[in-house]
Amino acid sequence: MTNPLEDYRTNGAWDELIDSEGQPRPHARHLMQYLSSLDDKELLSRKVASEIAIREMGISFTVYTEGGNIDRAWPFDIIPRIIELSEWRRIEDGLKQRLTALNLFINDVYNDQEILKKGIVPAELILKSRNYLEPCRGVTPPYGVWANICGSDLVRDGDGEVYVLEDNLRVPSGVSYMIENRQVTKRVFPELFEDHSILPVDEYTSQLFEMLASLSPRDLDYPEIAVLTPGIYNSAYFEHSFLAQGMAAELVEGSDLFVGADDCVYMRTVFGPQQVDVIYRRIDDIFCDPEVFRKDSILGVPGLIRAWRAGNVAIANAPGSGVADDKVVYAYVPEMIRYYLDQDPILPNVPTWLCEREEERAYVLEHLDEVVVKPANESGGYGMLVGPHSTKEERKTFAKLIRENPRNYIAQPTLSLSTAPTLTGNGFAPRHLDLRPFILQGESMSVTAGGLTRVAMREGSLVVNSSQGGGSKDTWVVDMEAF
Amino acid sequence: MLSRVAERLYWTSRYLERTENMARLINAYFQMVLDMPRGEEPGWGILLDITASREIYLKKHETVNEADVITFFIVDEGYGGSIISSVMSARENVRTTRDIITPGLWEELNELNLYVHELAEKSLARRFRYEFLEQIVQRCQQISGLVENVMCRTQAYRFIQLGKNLERADMTSRILDVGATAVNRRRAQENRDSNQLRYDSLLWMHILLSLNALTMYRQRIGPRVSSKGVVHFLLQDITFPRSVIFCVHQIGEAFTKLPRRGRALNLFAEVQDKLYHSDADVLAETGLHEFVDEIQRDLIRVNDIILSTWCSLEQKLEQTQSQ
Question: ipTM score of the complex?
Answer without folding.
Answer: 0.76
